[in-house]
Structure formats: C-alpha cells, structure tokens
Amino acid sequence: MQNPELISTILSVEPETRFSRIAVQTSARLHMGFFDLHGGLGRKFGGIGLALNAPQLELIASFSDEPLKVTVSGDHVASSNLAVLAKVKNISQQIIDQCSIKGNLNLHLEHHIAEHAGLGSGTQLALAVGTAISRLYQLNLSPMQIAKITGRGARSGIGIAAFSYGGVLIDGGRATGKVETSKLPPLLARYDFPSQWRVLLILDATLPGVHGEEEVLAFNQLPEFSANLAAHLCRHVLMQAMPALAENDLSAFGESIQELQAHVGDYFAPAQGGRYASPLVENVLMHLKHAGVKCFGQSSWGPTGFAVFENEVDAEKHLQQLRAKFTSTNLSWMVCSARNHSARTRQLI
C-alpha cells in the first residue's frame, strides 16, 4: 500500500534540474548490547552501538537511458555475494513502488559491508539505496522514512542513527503497546567516540550470524528476561557508560559493555550456541580478557568480535600478538576508528 504522506513529499522536478549522479558513502556499525529485553515499562530492547569508519559501503546512482528499468552492478562484489546486488534491486523497487516514481535507474555498488556478520549491513544498504534515489529524484526522504519503507529498525534504531549522525548511539527501544508499535526506536543520546580510541574487529568467515526468520524465531522462543536484570543493565548504561564517554574513561566504559555482553550473550546462548556465536572469535576474546583488555565483545548476533583500545599503538601491538597466536585462515582482522559524522552524500560530475 502506498503511503500518502511519503508520496506528498515528492517534488515535481523537471529532468534537467535533477542531479545526474549521486554517491552515498556509509560504513559498518557495532551493536554492543541491549539493556532492556524485559519490556515491562512499555518499551523493549533499547541498545547502545557505535558507527565505525570501516568496513565501508559506497553506492552510485544515476539515471538510466532505458525508462522503467533498474540496472544494478558492482565492481567489488564477489560472485558468491551476488545476492547483495539482488537486495539492492529489491530495495530500489520498494522505494520506486512506495513513492510512485519512474524506475529509470542505474545503481552501482562500489563497496559493500559483509552480510550477516553483525556489522549492520542490511540497514546501511537500505538507507544508502533510499538516500541515493531520494537525492536523485529530489524526494526529500529522511533516513527514518526510508527505514519505514524498507522495513528496517524492527528492534534496534542503532543502524538508522549511525547513518544519520555517527558516533556512539543509545536508543530507547520499541514501544510494546498496540498503538505505538509502528514507531521506530527513538535516539536518546549521542556522543562523539574519543578520536584516539581504536577498535579491533575480529572477523570469522566460516559462519553467518543469526538473521532473518531464524532471528525472529529466536526472539519468540527465548524465555522472559528478568526485570531486575534489565534494571541492572539500564543502570550500567546510564550511570557508567554515558558518564565514561563524557570523560573519555575507557576502563569504565568497558566495564559497562562487559555487563551487557555477559548477560545478554548468556541470554542469547540457546539461539547462537554460547555467549559468543563463533568459537574462533570467543578464543580471541578470552585471550584479550586474560591480557587485561577492558572493552571487548560481540557485535549483535556476531560472529564479528571487537575490542577497544586507548590508541592506535596499543591496538596494533595487540593485533600483532593475536596474528602470531591465532593462525586460522578463517580469522581476519581490522583496526578502525569511529565515524563521528553522518553518512556522506555527494553529487558527482
């Protein structure tokens, strides 16, 4: 069904006044944990996450010479990931159908984020495609409108906020009442991630994280989360993680993240096979724990793990040690910083 509110945002623009090529660049995000899986106060989930500067996604949209046709291509998309290009086409069709526009489009995916790795690829892809089409046709669609059209933000608003603002994001979860369930999770707080801190990503290529119907089934089958434990985790976010970010205190921030990781990871263990989805990543994280690293965990359903360090020198030192100790070819590593700004959109000549 078409949404009159969205259709009304479309401007009548002559073809010669439209932008000819639009590039959208965004990047991965970490989801560091939910803090209210009980939902007894009328809202459920609520999460904390971080926009990263890598891995990146870049999409270029332009008008096609063939009316009513959408062409999708990608230079750096492996043959095993052609499903990503199919998703680009499906997302573009959702926007085209919802907004009643002519689909004379070329969409070229230059870089993409690995799917089902816990890095938020689906939301970033949907928002990038929607933003590119919106700018190309001058529709003035916001990321929240695009998320609603494409069905993103069912439980978490972190990916939408990461695209819109960057930095460390804290959302308020979904309302559980019948009237408010259509609203996306609101952003409650946003902080710049300290520029000197570095994030080490630990990637496992052997298995995907829980996603799709499997994720829905997992949430439906998990037992009720403790109200007392939810209150405990909320306190750690409000009175530990947030002040720690304001004061650049990685130790205190890490303690808060560890509370979320331990309790939420154990709660999800029946669905993902343990506190962490990947045994390979778990071994690395336990090594980092014994080495005294304060902030580490799994992003979303994994399998990607992360660890946060005070600076690049410290991150690279630990990375070299890990490479020497963990030699599985299924593991890969990346040191990155935060992205403390929104996704970039630009007009190309």
Architecture overview:
With 349 residues, this protein is α+β, with helices and mostly antiparallel strands. The protein folds into 2 domains: 4-192 and 340-347, Ribosomal Protein S5, domain 2, CATH 3.30.230; 198-336, GHMP kinase, C-terminal domain (Alpha-Beta Plaits, 2-Layer Sandwich). Helices cover 38% and strands 25% of the residues. It has 10 helices and 12 strands. The strands form 2 sheets. Strands 1, 2, 3, 4, 5, 6, 7 and 12 form an 8-stranded mixed β-sheet that branches. It has a 4-stranded antiparallel β-sheet with strand order 9-10-8-11. Helix 2 links the parallel strand 3 and strand 4 (105-111). It is globular, with a radius of gyration of 20 Å. It starts with a helix and ends with a strand.
Stretches with pLDDT under 50, minimum 5 residues: 1-17
Mean pLDDT: 90
CATH class of the largest domain reads Alpha Beta
Helix and strand sequence: HEEEHEHHHEEEEHHHHEEHEE
What fraction strand? Answer: 15-25%
Largest sheet data = 8 strands, mixed
Overall radius of gyration: 20 Å
Domain module tally: 2
Structural class by SSE content? alpha+beta
By oligomeric state, this entry counts as single chain
CATH topology of the largest domain, what is it called? Answer: Ribosomal Protein S5, domain 2
Architecture of the largest domain in CATH? 2-Layer Sandwich
- Helical run tally: 10
State the end-to-end distance: 36 Å
**Which outline best applies?**
globular
Q: Specify the helix fraction band.
A: 25-40%
Please provide the count of β strands: 12
